[in-house]
Specification:
The chain is α+β, with helices and mostly antiparallel strands. It has helices spanning 2-31, 37-41; strands at 105-116, 132-139, 148-151, 160-170, 177-191, 194-200, 213-217, 221-227, 237-247.
């Protein structure tokens, strides 16, 4: 019986010690949470944010994702925009909307080939070789108006040209498309270095349409070849050109 009483006393003392230790540990954790062993258990990546509040409990560099896009606010260039996370060129426009992620965006329009196809007998003017002159019109802000115009020199007496004119057009980096038109002229009279008389050459194979009004999505790299031969619009020519996205300094 004495042995049982002795063991019971020991059990009572041991239980008291454990209870006291638990109370002290709990008090220590409340008073000093940053260094508390309980806190360290609840903060897997030791970033000072409890796992219950940490969206990235295993990443010490991240804990919050304000826009819910899966990228933490620290590494998200647009923490409040779920559609954007990066801005590679630092221009304030996210890579998703920016068609040129590595610099200021624009397009190059290059005239690759021109070939005069001759006049018919029904044409009221009868010279056999044109003095071609080219104009590129661009709607840079997509408001419906051609607000930028690029003009070539006059190529006197030339009925065939290759890689002869190009224009670099600066655009908004978040532009989704660009609208442009190319006009081909045959110059008839120049006065004091000013073109005063001309005729439009036709390269579009549709009656009544001398030039193509195009809208191209960005980014782009496209080439077209047109020939006005076969319709009733005279005089005719063949025109090939290319439009491509580019970074503009």
């Amino acid at each position: 019986m004495a042995k049982i009483a002795l063991d019971g006393s020991r059990l009572l003392v041991t239980s008291g010690v454990l209870l006291t230790s638990l109370i002290l540990l709990l008090s220590f954790s409340i008073l000093s949470p940053a260094i508390s062993p309980l806190t360290s258990v609840a903060d897997l990546d030791a970033d000072g944010v409890p796992d219950s509040l940490d969206t990235f409990p295993a990443d010490p560099t991240e804990w919050k994702d304000s826009d819910g896009d899966g990228v933490g606010d620290t590494n998200d260039a647009f923490p409040d925009d779920p559609n954007e996370t990066r801005d590679s060129d630092g221009d304030g426009i996210g890579d998703f909307l920016d068609f040129m992620d590595e610099g200021n965006g624009g397009v190059k329009i290059s005239l690759i080939k021109f070939e005069f196809e001759g006049y018919t007998t029904s044409c009221h003017r009868t010279k056999y070789s044109p003095d071609p002159w080219f104009e590129i019109r661009v709607d840079t802000d997509n408001d419906g108006d051609f607000d930028a115009v690029f003009q070539s020199e006059v190529f006197y007496g030339q009925d065939y040209l290759e890689y002869f004119f190009e224009a670099d057009i600066d655009l908004r980096d978040d532009a989704e498309c660009v609208r442009f038109s190319i006009i081909v002229y045959d110059v008839w009279d120049v006065d004091n270095n000013e073109i005063v008389d001309f005729e439009i050459l036709d390269y579009v194979p549709l009656d009544g349409l001398m030039a193509e009004d195009q809208i191209v999505g960005l980014p782009c790299c496209c080439t077209w070849t047109y020939c006005g031969e076969g319709d009733t619009d005279d005089p005719d020519c063949r025109l090939e050109y290319m439009v491509s996205s580019m970074a503009i300094p």
